[in-house]
Amino acid sequence: MLNLILFGPPGSGKGTQSSRVACRYNLVHLSSGELFREEVRKGTKLGYQLASYMLKGLLVPDNMVLKKIYKAAIHHEDTTGIVFDGFPRTVNQAVLLDRFLNKKNIPVSIVFFMMVDEKELISRMMGRAEDSGRLDDNEEVILRRMDVYEKQTRPLRDYYQKQNKLSCISGMAPVKVVAERISSVIDNYLMKKEIIKLVAE
Ligand code: AP5
To answer: What is the domain extent for residue 102?
Structure first.
């Protein structure tokens, strides 16, 4: 199984690139933000609870996140792999995801860290705000999301670096170019895996 994680600041292109990668390598795209927005749209009790955090730009508590993600991951157990987009977002979520996947012997393969300048991030999200309908795309909440990212999500970089799984990708280029950068890392990984398999046979 090819399990990928894309993480980075809000607006860094996680969603855009995750859907391209999923399509190119025939993987399931699992976006925590999308799962939550869908629940909010349905107007469920859980949706109201999620919205109360998302509208403030705060992270949803881990227990609510994990329940949703595990359920979705188990639903796709027979897939060739999953692209996790926006999850994990805290070191605690990463530790628990590792535990969950390692138990099933399908560990995380590569973690992509999307790097984009702050000015560009704000401009992208403000641009998207014009037609996205996303209530968290306004200046005040965007700044909060960026602050929350710095404090709670950025530490994931060290966590995955220690596991030798981190691949830093500059997201400061057109979508197609960034997609090629990501694909070349994945192709390299798959090629190495294939060679190891051949040698072992
Ligand atoms: P989430 O939906 O994950 O939002 P986010 O992290 O703030 O990220 P965005 O969706 O804004 O940006 P992105 O990096 O996906 O970039 P995109 O491709 O869209 O989470 C929303 C909320 O849900 C959180 O605030 C939190 O409350 C909650 N949540 C979610 N997961 C959670 C978790 N695990 N734990 C706790 N809470 C959680 O691109 C942005 C824009 O830029 C688009 O308009 C796009 O077209 C454009 N663009 C993309 N790439 C390029 C490029 N290369 N050049 C020019 N423009 C580009």
So the answer is: 2-199
